[in-house]
Every structure is written in C-alpha cells, then in structure tokens.
Design a protein that fits this description.
By secondary structure, this protein is mainly beta. It has 4 helices and 35 strands.
Length: 644
C-alpha cells in the first residue's frame, strides 16, 4: 500500500535554475588565484548565466533599459553581452564575469560607467536591540551594496576627466573601497572581498592613445566573497542566498561621439544594488553539487507555498475566518513590528523574507501594542484567498498609512510591464484597511479593480469578541480580514495550478489611545513597502491540498485515516484517525523515496477518533507519507505536505 501511494506523490514544481537560481559548484581541493584571468581549470566547469541586451530576461524582474541616448538611437550600437560564472570553495563564493565591450570606461559620477552592480543581503546586520532603532529602513539595514566598475570621483586628470587606462574600483557598504576613495587607498576587509580585473583594451580612451577609434575587446572580473562575513552558509543542503546582478554599459564616451554615445543597463532580476524592486535571484549551494558531480539538480523549492483549496467550498467573504479551510492552512507570514531574529526566522518563510523585513514608526510616541499579523493564503480555481488574523488591542479606523490598521498586498501582474524596463513585471498595489465602522476600506488598485470589475475583488472585516473600531476607550481583542482576488484580472490563467506568484507584504498597525497625543502607528513590510518589490516567489501548489475535517481516508480492520491538520504544515501537524478498539499506536513518517524519517510512539489509544502530533519543524518542504500502525498489525496510510 505504501509503495502505491509513493508512486503518486510527484510534485509538479517549476525548476528555478536559470530563472532565478544558479548553482555554485564546490571546487573541493582545487584553488583559485583571484587575478582576473579565470584561467584555472575549474572555471570551465562552473555554471554560467548570460546577461545580454535583447537576450532572455526571466520573470519577474530581469530586463534592460536605455539610460542616456542623446542621438535618439533605436538600440545600442555595442550592446551588453556578459557571462557570469559561479563557483564556491566551502563557504567562499567565487564569481567570474566576462563582458564583451568595444568601448570601456567610466566617469566621476555614480552609475554612469561600465561595471557590475549587485544587491546582497547581510543577515549579520539584523537588529538585536531596538533602543534607538524605531525606524529600520532599507537605507540603514541589511543590504550589502556591491559595485565593481569604472567610477572614480577622486582619480581624475588635470581637466577633471577619467584617467585613461585606470583599473575599475570595487566599493561596497562594508568591504573594498568607499565610493569616494582614490585607488591609492587601502581596501577594507580584503579577507572578506577579494577582486581583480583584466582589461582587453584601454579604459577611458576610445582612441587607445591614437587619433581615431580603436575598439576594445572587453574585460574580465574575478572575485571572492567570504559568505560568513555576510551571515550566509552555502555549505548546507539546498542552501541559497538572495542577490541581484546588473551590468552597466557606457559606450563611445572617451571622447564623446555624439552620434553613437549611449548608456544602457541589462540585469538579472534587479537593476539597482540597493533593493529588490524588480525581482530577486539566488545563488544555491549543496555539499553534493561539485565540479565533478555531473549535471546540476533542479531547484524547485519556492520561498513560500500557497496550497490548493480545490476540495473545499468557496468561503463567504465576510471577514470571519470561520470556514474550516482557514484553520487548516498555517499562516505563511507572521509579521510584527520590531520582531526579533528568532521571531523572523520562525514566522517568515524562505531565505529572503526573514532577512529582508523592515519597519517604520513615523512618530516619536512609544509603541505599547506591537501586534502580530498572521497571514493565511490559499487558492481555489482562479481566486487567491488571503486571511489576516490579529489580536490588536486598539483597532483603528484611520485611512492614513501612518496610523491605519490593515495590510498592503503587492503582486507582480502578468499582463503589464514596468515602463521602460524591457521585461520586468509591474507590481500592483492592493490596500485593505479597517474603517471607522468596522468594514473593509479598499485603496490603490484594490479600489480601482472594485470599481472596474466588482466580482474580481472582495474584502470583509470582522471584529473579534465585541471589539469596536476607532474607540480608544476600550481594549479590543483584535480583528480578522478576509480577501478574495480574481488573479485572471491580473493576466493569470483561469487554472492557477502550479503557477508562480511574486509578492510583497506590508502590515499596518495603528493604535489610537484615549490621550490622542500618545497615539502612534507602525508599518512592517516584507521585501517591498509599496508597489515596488513584488519579488518574493510563491508557488500556487496543486500538490499541497487543503484537507477538511470531512475527508475520509483508507480503512483497514476497524482503523481509518482521517487526514492531517493543518495540511500543509510548518512546525507541527496532527495525524487524525479512528479505531474501533483499544490498541498501541505508532505513527511513522516517510519521505517520497520511502525512507523512514520519523517514528512517534502514540502509546495506548482507546476506541474513537484520535490524533497524534507530528513535529514537522525539521522536515524540508515537500510531500510525505504517514502510516498509522496498531500493535495487532492493522495499518493505514495517508499523505501530508510540509511547507517553509
């Protein structure tokens, strides 16, 4: 019986490799000298990704853009064509870049020369104390901005121009040079970031010392980054770290050729180096993925999973999360102002969300009730359902985003692109908040869609245990919010099974007090604060089915499986069953390869419906088979899902 069930547990999940994930193979005992040559044999075994103008731009955030085009050209005359190489040695990441470029160079200002920009994340900088950190903006938080290219505000010629033949400069938030350093300065933390370049041509001189144009051939970058200096560990199984990569390309500028000069950018999942506004890419590592391990495996694990409610009735959107489905879907996101690192890790899914969450407290008053918002999501047919449950003790009716209660849901639309960004999906911003009467207020595109297509969006609010909105004289128990969005209105297909969505979440918690002078508001966002940042990848998984309490499972000799709840599970689930006699019960959990991963001794269980708790915190995302076995030999099996 177990073998038959296992045969049907394949999960139809998209392979992310080449879209937003690239493997970094481990080089083992080999060594790499960071000299800009990429001449070690292991580089030929590296996984590569091409960033090219008019090339493949994977969703949601890859693309291209013309930045400066005084001649009005239709396209670059020397378009970007660069190959990125990925390797690692233990927890040291090695990156190589080979760019074809006929006109290499830079300028004194920011973002106006050739080079590589990367957004990395630095979990080591997550706050451990909040004494003087009421505002935790992106500009002062966990970003590690990295740039390697031709930007030299200090090293210039006597006339203020760029120095011909000068090497590129590597600067970042914490390592290498600072943005204003001269090349004679000492780079910071060379043990953490090592870099070198080789230029086939002459930078900042299109005449190469002569009197007419001489084409350069290109440049090569090579670098090593100690990932523990950021807080990542790619030596763990199926590990990943988020980043973006953008190639800046300035051509025919030394001297300016008025008929050919252009600046253009091409990027993998993000054009800047200080946000994830367009998308988010990942570098992956695993002990088994080496330069000698053969083809790399698929990488299918999403950042979060949205289960299918195909076997459940459609909910009534009244704001009351009382349908059985809501109790069976664990919250994918638990968002709280000034959450600790432990709370972030426990309450947010994937590799990016726990490390790229920010908050803002726009006033100086103390925050007395930092309430957790628990977001549950599932889909059914063409509808995405979102449930928010909070225990807010001071429910506000304000409309201002500085003081409101509610949330902002930003999603990358399938039917619209960002203006001028050639491939990056546009983010659509839905605002839902509690008004002073305790009903749902819709804002931004939620209000627009409700006016244009009322059946495509529904929202409701309910007050918990007699709570009253906008009444500072009482202590509330909280509120619930229920939302339904027809994703076909955003260009999604009618059948959402195994579709990819890209989102950002912003949770508003405003508290009005009897002494209004002490009232305050906070907002806490995952990835993006407004309509930018819809880049967190979720899978609408047809394999993650929500089971209701009425589901009946296999039966064997008076023993019946009744499913698990919640399903999918994150930290724990209950295996439910009924038996017609007292018996010693054992629950076994198997992975999809049939390997026993957990055994729970349930002890003596009397006749009736019973449940045994399974700890799923240590299990990876995926499908599992459980077996309920009695001491007299009777056994039944069932299926459950674990999501992260």
């Amino acid at each position: 019986m177990l073998g038959l069930l296992l045969a049907g547990t394949a999960i139809a999940q998209p392979d992310r490799v080449g879209q937003d994930v690239m493997w970094a193979r481990d080089i083992g005992s080999a060594t790499i000298a960071v000299d800009g040559n990429l001449d070690e044999a292991v580089w030929a075994q590296a996984e590569t990704y091409t960033i090219a103008w008019d090339g493949v731009h994977p969703l949601p955030g890859s693309g291209q853009s013309i930045r400066d085009n005084p001649a009005g050209l239709d396209a670059p005359l020397d378009p970007t064509n660069a190959t990125v190489y990925f390797l690692r040695k233990g927890n040291e990441l090695y990156l190589g870049l080979q760019a074809q470029d006929a006109s290499i160079g830079g300028d004194r200002g920011f973002f106006v020369g050739d080079g590589l920009m990367m957004t990395l994340v630095r979990p080591l900088d997550r706050p451990t104390t909040f004494t003087d950190r009421d505002d935790y903006f992106e500009s002062s938080a966990v970003r590690e901005e990295m740039f390697y290219g031709w930007q030299h505000p200090s090293d210039t010629t006597a006339t203020g121009g760029q120095v011909p033949g000068i090497a590129p400069k590597a600067w970042s938030t914490d390592f290498g040079y600072t943005a204003g350093d001269m090349m004679s300065a000492t780079p910071r933390s060379p043990e953490a970031w090592e870099f070198a370049a080789v230029v086939d041509g002459v930078a900042n001189d299109d005449y190469n010392g002569g009197s007419s144009f001489v084409a350069d051939n290109g440049y090569t970058f090579e670098m090593r980054i100690r990932l523990d200096s950021l807080g990542w560990d790619l030596t763990q199984p199926m590990a990943r770290m988020p980043l973006t990569m953008s190639i800046m390309d300035r051509d025919f500028s030394w001297p300016i050729d008025a008929e050919r000069f252009m600046r253009h950018w091409t990027w993998w999942q993000g054009r800047w180096f200080n946000n994830f506004n367009e998308g988010m890419a990942f570098i992956a590592g695993d002990p088994s993925v080496t330069v000698s391990s053969g083809p790399v495996p698929a990488y299918t694990e999403p950042e979060f999973t949205v289960p299918s409610g195909m076997n459940t009735p459609a909910p009534t959107i009244d704001g009351v999360l009382d349908e059985p489905v809501w109790s069976l879907v664990d919250p994918q996101f638990k968002i709280k102002y000034q959450a600790t690192a432990e709370e972030l890790d426990a309450g947010l899914p994937g590799a990016a969300a726990p490390n790229y969450t920010f908050y803002f407290h726009p006033d100086a008053n103390p925050v007395l009730d930092p309430t957790e918002g628990r977001f549950h999501m599932y889909y059914r047919e063409n509808m995405l359902y979102i449930g928010l449950d909070t225990d807010d003790q001071a429910v506000n009716g304000s409309e201002s985003e500085n003081t409101r209660d509610g949330f902002r849901f930003t999603i990358a639309a399938r039917d619209s692109l960002k203006d001028g960004l050639g491939g990056s999906l546009a983010g659509v911003q839905f605002d839902f908040s509690v008004d002073s009467t305790g009903t749902a207020r819709l804002g931004n595109y939620a209000a627009t869609l409700a006016e244009e297509n009322p059946s495509a969006i529904m929202a409701g609010v309910s007050m918990k245990n007699g709570s009253t909105p906008a009444d500072p004289s009482d202590i509330d128990a909280g509120y619930q919010m229920e939302v339904a969005i027809d994703l076909t209105a955003l260009g999604f297909p009618a059948n959402l099974d195994d579709e990819q969505i890209y989102i950002a979440l912003n949770y508003f918690d405003g508290d009005s007090l009897e002494d209004d002078a002490q009232s305050y508001g906070t907002r806490t966002w995952v990835i993006g604060e407004r309509n930018n940042g819809a880049s967190l990848y979720g899978l609408l998984s047809s394999s993650a089915l929500v089971n209701t309490a009425s589901d009946r499972g296999p039966e064997s000799d008076g023993l019946r499986a009744l499913g698990t709840a919640p399903n999918p599970a994150t930290d724990r689930t209950q295996v439910r069953f009924s038996l017609d006699r007292t018996a010693e019960v054992t629950v076994e959990v198997f992975d999809v390869l049939g390997r026993l991963v957990q055994t729970i001794d349930g002890g003596a269980q009397v006749a009736g419906e019973r449940a045994i708790t399974v700890d799923t915190a240590g299990l990876s995302t995926g499908a599992y088979i459980y077996r309920v076995r009695l001491d007299d030999g009777a056994a039944v099996t069932g299926r459950m899902m674990v999501v992260r």
